[in-house]
Amino acid sequence: MKIGELARRSGLSAHTIRYYERIGLLPYADRDGSGQRDYDVAILTWIEFLNRLKTTGMPIREMLRYARLRERGEETGAQRRVLLEEHRERVREKVAELQDCLLVLDTKIAGYAGAGPRIKDTNANDTQQSECTPERKPARTR
Predict the structure, then answer these.
(1) Whose CB among 1, 32, 55, 98 lies 3.0–4.6 Å from 38's, allowing a Cys bridge?
(2) Closest by CA position to 2, among listed 34, 50, 25
(3) What is the DSSP letter of 1?
(4) pTM of the predicted model, to two decimals?
């Protein structure tokens, strides 16, 4: 399939597909007689997996590491499993954090709707720091 069809079917732009190919997330496509990229339909499964990793917050450098291991074949299965297990743990931690935030939001919404007791605000503008405020990492210094 040509890059336009792959873009349409995968949800990625042609620019993103070329970028992923250039950095090594996608294997280089075969070329047809006129030099245009010609992708096998199996690439859609790999792109779907990459999209899942991206959605769950895996950094591109780890996705690249996984892709390089995948290219080397079955001998890297254990390493890929460990990489995914470590990522799964980070995803579980993030899901738990989001569940805590959802509980705070549900409580706040219920209070506004008069459906339950209000938690006393320490600031009338609701700008207080809460448990679900993301932690800020210090800026890197050179």
Answers:
(1) 32
(2) 34
(3) -
(4) 0.74
Q: Is residue 107 a contact partner of residue 97, using CB atoms and an 8 Å limit?
A: no
Non-local (6+) Cβ contacts of 6 within 8 A are 12, 14, 17, 39, 43, 44, 47
Which residue has 């291991």 as its token pair? Answer: 69
Structure tokens at 137: 């990492």
Which tens digit of pLDDT belongs to each residue from 42-77?
A: 999 999 999 999 999 999 999 999 999 999 999 999
* 24 secondary structure, DSSP code: T
Helix (H) or strand (E) holding 125: none
Instruction: Give the chain's end-to-end CA distance (angstroms, integer).
Output: 45
Which residues, including other chains, have CB under 8 Å from residue 35's CB and lie 6 or more apart? none
**Token pair 């989001």 in the structure block, residue:** 98
CB 51 within 8 A of CB 11: yes
